[in-house]
Amino acid sequence: MRFCLYLHKLCIFGNTSSLFKNNKLKKYLLHTFDLLPAKNGEEPTMQFLLEVVDILTNYIRKTFDRSTKVLDFHHPHQLLEGMEGFNLELSDQPESLEQILVDCRDTLKYGVRTGHPRFFNQLSTGLDIIGLAGEWLTSTANTNMFTYEIAPVFVLMEQLTLKKMREIIGWPNGEGDGLFSPGGAISNMYSVMIARYKYFPEVKTKGMSAAPRLVLFTSEHSHYSITKAGAALGFGKENGYVPLFVNATAGTTVYGAFDPINDIADICEKYNLWLHVDGAWGGGLLMSRRHRHKLSGVERANSVTWNPHKMMGVPLQCSAILVREKGILQGCNSMCAGYLFQPDKQYDVTYDTGDKAIQCGRHVDIFKFWLMWKAKGTVGFEQHIDRCLELSEYLYNKIKNRPGYEMVFQGEPQHTNVCFWYIPPSMRNMPDGEERRERLHKVAPKIKAMMMESGTTMVGYQPQGDKVNFFRMVISNHAATRSDIDFLIDEIERLGHDL
Amino acid sequence: MRFCLYLHKLCIFGNTSSLFKNNKLKKYLLHTFDLLPAKNGEEPTMQFLLEVVDILTNYIRKTFDRSTKVLDFHHPHQLLEGMEGFNLELSDQPESLEQILVDCRDTLKYGVRTGHPRFFNQLSTGLDIIGLAGEWLTSTANTNMFTYEIAPVFVLMEQLTLKKMREIIGWPNGEGDGLFSPGGAISNMYSVMIARYKYFPEVKTKGMSAAPRLVLFTSEHSHYSITKAGAALGFGKENGYVPLFVNATAGTTVYGAFDPINDIADICEKYNLWLHVDGAWGGGLLMSRRHRHKLSGVERANSVTWNPHKMMGVPLQCSAILVREKGILQGCNSMCAGYLFQPDKQYDVTYDTGDKAIQCGRHVDIFKFWLMWKAKGTVGFEQHIDRCLELSEYLYNKIKNRPGYEMVFQGEPQHTNVCFWYIPPSMRNMPDGEERRERLHKVAPKIKAMMMESGTTMVGYQPQGDKVNFFRMVISNHAATRSDIDFLIDEIERLGHDL
Hints:
PyrdxlP-dep_Trfase_major (chains A, B), five-stranded mixed sheet, glutamate decarboxylase activity (chains A, B), six-stranded mixed sheet, Aspartate Aminotransferase, domain 1, alpha/beta, Aspartate Aminotransferase, domain 2, homodimer
């Protein structure tokens, strides 16, 4: 087998990073033009890709190694000025493959290890090996979800996976529609678009002036993408006018709170409003028998956003918009561009999903998710979710009565979000008031900056309403353990002690 | 070096695809739970990833091998029923790593080789090895373009690359703004949104009712995404009312035609309209000194869509929206979500681009493009584009007077699009008229169906206006040569001869 022969050739030199040097191919003389499809390009192509994989697997190994830093922080101007051997500027002339490999190594070196067990900064964390393999394959296949013709397997995987997700939501027989979109904000935008189309289909051709002035309802803590969608789609964000759409958030960004879907659904049914559930963050809990009750009533929604790239640990990006009514996504978005979607093909063209989307070509986001589902089974996702929630419970119990901590909201968190202030010793006896508020507001940013400079861990902070900056801890990383939670708390105290 | 030791261990068994079997790790007993971050997960992880890479590199090698088929066509119901050993259904229980590898292999087996030298079906074709390596790295880094905090290197790469693109467009000092979006349709939608914001900023908060009834102008052959954006954003597609926005297409989807940008810009200046240039397909020609005159006047546009994933051979997805006026993208889309974009960070937060986008997290589409630019240099892109256009000229000259061919439009193609009817011998003496039209309409679909069944090549067809189905040949694949063009023509004649 040729591949293996290459590997063998590579190995005998002992050090993969200097392969080309020890080899008659002379990497420093080689350029992209020497790779496939160039004549005799096969050997350098395989060697180049193996060197890249060497860099990547080293990175992966270190990502899970707690003695490695989460990041090696530099300011924008530092990176722009150029680090030794790493220059971001583009030039007119080609670089050698040797330099390209250096560029790859340095890009990872100055980046952030989002899969590190101590990276807690975002809702999307972790590095799932199966999901990663799925992404490598997806890139290699290099196609899009435009038609069955050019993505037969991926189109069917998407269809089956969306059906399974609708079954889990609880729609009868998993009927309905949906697609994977470039993130929760776009999924939410889809929900607003189809709601408008459902009640005022003439808007599609006549514009917003064909409808009365419409209004969208959403809670104060809901994600800003609902407001963005409203602005983009021409609703504005004024109060008043005719109600059209209600968004219930299942897992808010900061608090991880769940709106009472059943209560909201009652109102929507009474007044004939579109009910959307934004489960971008909380949707994953549907996979857990222990936690899915938090989304009770989700089966009454007209549409649901659910991002497997958040709580389910799927690599970015992977967000689904799920719609209960079949055909409406097509009705809303199709422009019947016959020059793109030919009706006279030899296969069943209902599998050509391109015209349902607002995108034309749509990135293949399904494969990694499908592959992870195969590898973990439904039970594997359940275990992942239960474990993350247990960890956040551990954190909550650890700090709720610990000296120097104040919880931002009372009671156990519903999701993995644990929101808290750390009060440095110097402030613990300060009376409540503006001065204390002002000082406290600066504590989290200062600790965070020191964390990033030292590169040991990362956790988010933000203000919310009249609440000054507080830490928001979230757990979606399957690599995190109790020891990492302990480490985070120790680190906050170490860095914040003298503030 | 440990990696190399693994490689070596792998090699000595001779056949990488049965590694685990010959190895005490016993792949068939291993599951995703045994991989990192599991205890002792490092060795199985590295072995698993190398097996995946083995599958991928084999696929890549075959992609460039003309004796390999472009596709192995199956109908949806066949794939859904399950091919031997390949079952698309998701189950509750986990599958072994051995099965996961089989799933990977089969996913590729039943897909379409979009990098094959004889795949001409889409505007995006080819498999660039450097771009692919860039995608593998991007997946491994698994972050998004939300903030500098979590994607420092990628954020700066995007900024520098967009600036370079604006320089090439011809905006003074490359000033302006922009971002990479999930495809040309979304880039075009951005252009409509910011144009509306520019002239009627109150729409953002008050909705479309705050503006007069607005209208967008675009040519009949422009991409349907402009109409989709109009519908989505609440414009409708009615005639009349106040003109706001003019789209000039640089490279239409079917004909590859270029609108006269300077003439349109004159009108836009006179009437104070927003000029958008949709260069999703034709933007790449800006890299070529020989062909950039076709976009003459592009520097007068207010915004430009330009998809490196089309004519520049960058892997999917990679589309830029470029905006001449600085700050307007931010003004249009920002919702100032302080809980997501904290102003009190230790670094210069103008690098946090998240709030400029309608997405929240934004996929990292920049790295592969940046890396390709490094590897090829500006001159490398120029060569690629000139070569593709030469090839299409070769095709045009080959068939324009060849018996059995009729060109759909007269004169040399402006882009790589060559549109033609193939007339089977049995129809060559038929008089013009409805019967001939009806028969001709069925020729391209029949040939295409046979092509797909035999898997030898793929080229698109479509009707346009009152023109019956014709072939649209496009060339963006750097692997294609004159012999592949000859092959396509031979294949059309072989399959269509007896129709």
